Amino acid sequence: MNATAAQNPADVEKPVEAGHLADRGWRLTVYFALLVAVVAIAAAVATVYVFVQTDRDSRHTAERNATFAAGAAAKDLGEGVATLKATTASLATTPNIDEAATQPSCTLTFGSTGGLSDGHVDILKPDGSVSCSSRPRTGKAPLEGYGGAAWLKQVTDRPVLLGPLVDSVTGAQSVVSAARTPGHGFALTFVALGPVGRSLVAVYGGGRPVEFLLTSADGRTVLTRSIAPERWIGKPLANTPFAEDSGVERKDVDGTPRLYEQAVVPGAGWKFYAGEDEAAALAAGHRLRERQLVIILAGLALVLLATYAVYRRVAVPIRRLGAYVRATSALTPPEPVPVSGPAEVADLGEDVNGLIASVDRELRQRQQAEESALASEQSYRLLFESSPLPMWIHDAGTQAILEVNDAAVARYGYSLEEFMALTTADIVGPSETVEDQLADISRHLHKGGSKIKARTITHSVSFNGRPAHCVVAEDVGERERLESQLRQAQKMEAVGQLAGGIAHDFNNLLTVISGYGGMARNRVGVGPGARELDQIENAADRAAQLTHQLLAFSRQQVLDPVVLDLNEVIGAVSPMLTRLIGENVEIGVLTDEEAPPVLADRGQIEQVIVNLVVNARDAMPEGGTLTIETRQVHLDERYADEHAGVEAGTYACLSVTDTGKGIDRETQSRIFEPFFTTKDVGAGTGLGLATVHGIVNQSGGHLEVYSEPSFGASFKVYLPAAVGAAVVRAFAPARRPDRLSGTETVLVCEDDDLVRNLVETMLTENGYRVLAAARPDEALEFASAHDEPIQILVTDVVMPQMSGPELVDKLHAVRPELEVLFLSGYSAETVRLRALQDGAAFLQKPFDDVSLLQRIRSLLDPTERATTIGGERDDVHEPA
């Protein structure tokens, strides 16, 4: 088929063969999707990394700040403590310090150092009273001393550091560096702890919300704190949130999460903690993380946009190219595809166009070669397979059969598989060489053992590249038999035509004679000449009977058929049959009331019955059982195709069955030949069964015999059912009523595929439009979707999903005018009791096309008096 216009690429679907799926790579879309996925995963990883690393960096920075602050402050504090001790030691070791301290000119000064910014220096007498102090005096009243202080007992000659303790003079929590003087007095340097933390934060806090915590060397007592020092100095750390944790991340004494680093104050052993506020330390990192996340998302969006732009620039031209390739592949001849897109895609399009042109040339050449080979093979097949003569091909060396046609299979009696397993020697016989047997007329072997007289023609051929011989066999014996039958038929036809012509002309003369004779007889009445005219009429009647016999002989057919009831005929001849068969044979008669009447000559039918019964009696010399049976059967198209001269339709079957010695296959092939007999010489004429065969054929019927040696025989006579009134004429096969076809729309619902297809075929061949549904839901869909009228529903009664009556109720809701015909394999009475309402149209299975069409016409044409055939009968494929 040549295409004159290019197809739309979007309308061409790309065929995909299942066997090639494994060889195809991923689509370009997948690769871009993977690229986007990789970028997205990278962005996600980067985001996670930013989240984790920013938090980690913030913590690390805070820890470093805390480490620096703790170390620097502890170092500074250590220097201050060292200075404090040195000052105390210097005072305590000053010569005559005790006497100098009592002088009015004694002056002491406290200098801040290492974060120790608030304190005072005192020299005490042995009783604890103040000799000299850096505290200012108020009037001439002595300064308050420390007599009775318990901590003075801990002071030795070497400077000691005591605290925290309450300075009884100032009331502040303080530490004191004390040492004894040579005169057993005391040199004291007091430092208030409250301001220590704040001053260190101011120096080393860097403006951050950092907390400094100074504890005793054993870490149990708070010496000072930068936050609320008055509240915590001297308090134990036990049972505080700070004491519950250890390490860097812990809560301060107030419960605030912090990142702590610690250092030991040199010279004092105190533990100094610097704690960065965790929330404040991480806040900056969080802000940085958010900015970095925005940058990552923006970069990801740019990458996605760039990827999409590249994909559109690359993938779309490729996809368009593929669509054009698929579109042009459906054209004959293919057309070049448009070229567009990037240079690589354009180059690919040019290569595809070159490939299309090359493949098109090759395909044209191959198509021409294939068409030539196919034409040659078809010619050979047509000649070989359709030949009416048996043909086979055998190997030139082994004579093994390589190919055989249907005619050879049918003539030699083998199946196709059996024939292909033979050699030509098995066919022509082993007694002579194959070449001699194939040279001229010879006897071939049938599967059943019989000989076939055949003339063969052999010529050399090449079969699938190997030397072979083609053998053509002509059945000379069959031809000679057919020629003999033809000569006999021609002779009988000539005699029949002569007798028929004479009888016809003589009948015309008799008509004139009897007509005028009757007129003359009526005019004469009882007067003179009446007797002579009566004799003329009698002679005319006898001449008419003679012409009837001549016509019966010449035409080999029934001359005076009447409508007969086979059951009544059998009943009438039964007494005579009892006398014929003798006492040692038991006779049984089985008649079917449904057996239809037939159109035949009563005398000839009686002759058929008598001849078959006598033949059965002779087959049972020792006695046995003889059964005569009648029934209604239907011979279908397949049976008619397999039996020449038989037309499909309804028949009355008359069968005569015996329990005698049976008939072998070879005898069955000749049993109806005139003068053929298996009886002894003089015991029979060989015309009995030949007469039966002739009468049945003349009556428009068909005769079959079924027998096996030792198992008796059954002769079955099939006579067409009579239609209409009998007429005195040669029987013609019944014709179908004129009003069976139609143009209406029929909705068929039948769940059995074979029955549904049969009904659809019956209806469509008679002009109906058919909507065939396998299930009720399909029938409902057809009824809803079909815009035109639907005249009748033909439905099964019992179906899955819902029954036929339920389907009818649903369809009548939307199509109330719909006629309905129910089908069922159950009897009409049983179906109506179970499912149908009284008066519902019903046709029982099995049925023929006439029954169905008549029933439908009776529903569609209420005035049509079509005969509905719904009774029981036999659907016969091959009578048994």
Mean pLDDT over the residues:
78
Question: How many β-strand runs?
Answer: 28
Q: How would the global form be characterised? A: rod-shaped
Distance between the termini: 52 Å
Residue windows where pLDDT falls under 50 for at least 5 positions: 1-22, 548-559, 725-736, 826-834, 865-880
What percentage of amino acids are in beta strands?
15-25%
Nearest-angstrom radius of gyration?
64 Å
Query: Helix content range of the residues, please?
Result: 40-55%
Tally the helices: what do you get? 23
Q: Which class best fits the helix and strand makeup?
A: alpha+beta
Question: Summarize this, please?
Answer:
The protein has 880 residues and is of the alpha+beta class.
Explain what the structure shows.
With 880 residues, the protein is an alpha+beta fold. Helices cover 44% and strands 20% of the residues. The chain has 23 helices and 28 strands. The strands form six sheets. Strands 17, 19, 20, 21, 22 and 28 form a six-stranded mixed sheet that branches. The radius of gyration is 64 Å and the shape is rod-shaped. The relative contact order is 0.05.
